[in-house]
From TrEMBL:
Entry keyword set: Membrane, Symport, Transmembrane, Transmembrane helix, Transport
Membrane topology, from the record: Multi-pass membrane protein
Name of the protein this chain belongs to: Transporter
Similarity remark: Belongs to the sodium:neurotransmitter symporter (SNF) (TC 2.A.22) family.
Lyase found in the keyword field: no
Pfam families linked to this entry: SNF
Length: 445
């Protein structure tokens, strides 16, 4: 089914490339800002440790055992009672929904590569006005960059992802981490650093609402690429003797560390410049450029490198968002990769265009449903509903439908018995109950 096989290192790199993306550097900081800081971070971290990690391992197990796409994995892995499940199908839509707004944001990053290389805004106010102006008025410019991001993503996927992606990740992930660490050292010298630590790590639970809890849980899935079959699809082409336990742990750890570093850097700048933490999706585009500006030519260079690395982090994730749906279509309908990608491409492009114009002042009327713009609808429905739901299904399937013996056979050598038991307990009880409770609370109360 899968022609190419990952090497073991290749898988960890590709999974890390999928996980580490705009979710860490764009979305995590702005969601933290909007949801009042520490309490949001606390719930997010709890979800990563107690739910995300277990679901990550469970998805890897399903992929590794089925060696098929995300939908087939549910259908072809026999249950204890010899029956098959049919409930994984909706996951293939999640990818299209996420990709549609994800490529728009990569487009913004492309624009900021250019901004960083030329003229950076000198104050947070100026940066805010520039970003706001782009989103709400510059339809043509945004469409241009969105189209570029779209073409690059689909081109890479059309090439068969494994080798290209492995190599890009190998170079660019360390570059991104390097730049972030440099920025962190710089942030440590600024006044706002202490405030940023307090904001991120001292929870104020009076700021917690059921919506912010759901956002934190949903974001934990989004950031680890869980709940739509990406990790399943990637682990379908793993060598037999791969250690799924260490790969899950390392990817989750890396992803979390990068998000936290990004948060520390960005909030240090926000507080040092006296800016507003709750400014929404523009946060990273507003808080960083004035800092780069202050550093003179060096700032142009660092800013340029930062946005380039961020663009690549975005693209390696975008590719992993297309792949599960593409793989499913190729297997299921026996069509070629190019055919599958053409169908996906048209759908994504149309949805993406609607999402883009839903932010534009003069056009938003055409892309507003029930008073909400398409961009926000796509973001909310995927992160807060579809991904947690996908994660719930994975947990239930691995926890209840699959034979325990098969799990022990696959994982037993790679984790102590006690750890296995904790994981199994989590996948049967903690994850399903946690996800269900949060979703029911948010959607019905
Ligand atoms: N994990 C990616 C990020 O944090 O940017 C986004 C993502 C990739 C979500 C792949 C879902 C997915 F299947
Ligand atoms: Na991530």
């Amino acid at each position: 089914m899968h022609g190419e096989r990952f090497s073991k290192v290749g898988f960890v790199l590709a999974a890390a490339g999928s996980a580490v993306g705009l979710g860490n550097i764009w979305k995590f900081p702005y969601m933290t800002g909007e949801n009042g800081g520490g309490a949001f971070v606390f719930i997010y971290l709890l979800t990563i440790v107690f739910i995300g990690l277990s679901v990550f391992l469970a998805e890897s197990v399903m992929g590794r055992l089925s060696r098929g796409d995300a939908v087939s994995a549910f259908e072809t892995l026999p249950q204890k009672n010899g029956q098959y499940w049919k409930y994984g199908g909706f996951m293939v839509f999640t990818g299209v929904i996420i990709l549609s707004f994800y490529t728009i944001v990569i487009g913004w990053i492309f624009k900021y590569i250019y901004v960083a290389a030329t003229t950076l805004p000198s104050s947070v106010e100026e940066a805010g006005a520039a970003f706001g102006g782009m989103i709400t008025t510059d339809t043509v410019g945004q469409m241009l960059f969105f189209t570029l991001a779209f073409v690059i993503t689909f081109y890479i996927v059309s090439q068969g992802i494994k080798r290209g992606i492995e190599r890009i990740n190998l170079v660019l992930m360390p570059l991104l981490v390097g730049i972030l660490v440099l920025l962190l050292f710089y942030a440590m010298t600024l006044d706002g650093f202490g405030d940023s630590l307090r904001f991120l790590f001292i929870p104020d639970f009076s700021k917690v609402t059921s919506t912010s809890i759901l956002s934190a849980v949903g974001h934990a899935f989004f950031t680890l690429s869980l709940g739509m079959g990406t990790i399943m699809t990637y682990s379908a082409s793993l060598p037999k003797d791969s250690n799924l336990v260490t790969s899950s742990l390392s990817v989750a750890a890396l992803d979390t560390i990068i998000a936290l570093i990004a948060g520390m850097v960005i909030f240090t700048l926000i507080f040092s410049f006296g800016a507003e933490p709750a400014q929404g999706a523009g946060l990273v585009f507003i808080s960083l450029p004035p800092l780069f500006h202050d550093l003179g030519v060096l700032g142009n260079i660092i800013g340029f490198a930062f946005f380039v690395a961020l663009a690549f982090a975005g693209i390696t994730s975008a590719v992993s968002i297309v792949e599960p749906t593409a793989m499913y279509m190729i297997n299921r309908f026996k069509i070629s990769r190019v055919q599958a990608l053409s169908i996906l491409g048209v759908t994504t492009y149309v949805l993406g265009t609607l999402a883009l114009i839903s932010n534009v002042e003069t056009l938003k009327g055409y892309a507003t449903i029930f008073g909400k713009g398409v961009f926000d609808i796509l973001d909310f429905s995927s992160s807060s509903i579809l991904l947690p739901l996908g994660g719930l299904l994975v947990a239930l399937f691995v926890g209840y439908a699959l034979q325990k013996d098969r799990l022990v056979a696959l994982l037993g050598d790679h984790m102590p018995k006690a750890a296995f038991d904790v994981w199994y307990f989590s996948i049967r009880y903690v994850a399903p109950l946690g996800i269900a409770a949060v979703m029911i609370n948010q959607l019905f109360f």
